[in-house]
Amino acid sequence: MTPLPLGLYLHIPFCRQRCDFCAFYLEIHREGRAETFVQSLIHEIGLSAQQHVAAGRPIQSVYVGGGTPTVLAPTQLIAILSEIRTHLALASDCEITVEAHPSTISEQDHTQLLQAGVTRMSFGAESMEDGDLARIGRPGAVHETVVAVAQARAAGFTNINLDLMYGLPGQSLEGWQRTLFRSLTLEPTHLSCYALTVEEDTRLASNIQRRRSPAPDEGLQIEMDEAAQRMLGDAGYERYEVSNYAKPGYACRHNLLYWTNGEYLGLGPSAQSYLDGTRFGNAADLAAYDTSIAANRLPIEDRTRLSEEEQLRDAVIFGLRLIQGIPTRCLHQHAANYGHAAITAQLLGQQLIEEDGERSRLSARGRLQADTIAEQLY
Ligand code: SF4
Cα of 239 to ligand 1 centre, how many Å? Predict the structure, then answer.
């Protein structure tokens, strides 16, 4: 039997500073600390390959995220990628993505990453208006995104993503449309458009509580979402998931694994894995992570074996986010397993979920309420 493909996620837990809205696990970048971490991650790759990955199981995608991976020197990123190739079997067409903050990468860095086999650059642009960036405490400026994309393309990258956020404090519908328009002029192959959500214990949450910043306006976010769908659709991008748009053939293979209940191994502090029906996660603490690795122990803190019903539940909840949807029989089997027949019928009656006989998916209105619907079906 052909072994199932596997995704690999690497969490680089450093940023130069924390953005106001960010609740990810991370540390402020310091060179000495970062070098210790790189050595730990290299060690973890070898340990993990021995314990988790059956020989020959192909890695179809590698995603280096964070944090800000490009606060590491290219030589450090290349050493990590090289260790992966030593211990794991990368598929010949493996998609290798590196996330970058536009102000942390140079023309030469792009060339080195391309030569090391990186196939896709993902830039955290967030907005194409400097005022928006300032209001969310995001370091950097719009012109750095423009320069970084040009440098990536000049180096030879043909697969480029921009991450954008909408519903930012003070952002108008017209401002969001300008961001979309300017992003389109950069001709990325992929755009991720996320509605700003306010996470607990962030500076943004505190600013909103003290009335220094307005809370996101849900009605305006819906209008912004509709504007994105219209403008990006007109420009030839296909919306293939609630927040993701791609030119034909450029959907992110790694993220598709998450939404199709595929398996992935996560390495680095706080990284999550899903293998053989079990979810497990690494310690979200850099010191504890380094200590565990130094003792030749994988830094796994929690492990949950999912029942068949729970695996189906997750497949339904993630799969409904995809435009291709899920087999309708899976939706109804999940409803039967969890006693959700009434709520499922209600979501269908309200046309928030649509069925075309064999497949079920969120409708255009349903996509705007994806998180609420997921909670109802959990
Ligand atoms: S750059 Fe990204 S990971 Fe780092 S603080 Fe900002 S949002 Fe969070």
Answer: 25
d(CA 312, CA 257): 15
pLDDT at 57: 78
| Helix (H/G/I), strand (E/B), else coil: 100 | strand
Adjacent-strand bridge partners of 192:
163, 244
The phi and psi torsions of 359 (rounded to 5 degrees) equal: -125, 150
Query: To 10 degrees, the CA torsion angle through 327, 332, 333, 334?
Result: 100
Instruction: Yes or no: say if 335 and 344 are a contact pair by the CB < 8 Å rule.
Output: yes
> How far is it, in rounded angstroms, from Cα 147 to Cα 107?
9
Q: How far does residue 22's CA lie from ligand 1's centre (Å)? A: 6
Q: How many CB atoms lie within 10 A of CB 276?
A: 10
Q: How far is CA 183 from CA 107, 136, 188, 293, 324, in A?
A: 20, 19, 8, 41, 26
- How far apart CA 282 and CA 270 sit, in angstroms, is 5
Return the axis-axis angle of helices 341-349 and 370-377, rounded to nearest 10°.
150
Q: For strand 160-166 and strand 120-126, is the pairing parallel, antiparallel, or unpaired? A: parallel
What per-residue confidence (pLDDT) applies to 56? 65
Strands 14-15 and 27-28: what pairing?
parallel
Q: Residue 340 has what pLDDT?
A: 94
Question: Exposed, middle or buried by CB within 10 Å (0-12, 13-18, 19+), for 114?
Answer: middle
Measuring from atom 2 of ligand 1, which residue has the nearest CA?
A: 67
Q: For atom 3 of ligand 1, which residue has the closest CA? A: 67
Q: Which residues of the chain have pLDDT under 50?
A: none
> Helix, strand, or coil here: 37?
helix
* Residue 139, token pair as written in the block: 């370091």
Global model pTM greater than 0.85:
yes
Residue 303's φ and ψ, nearest 5 degrees, are -140, 125
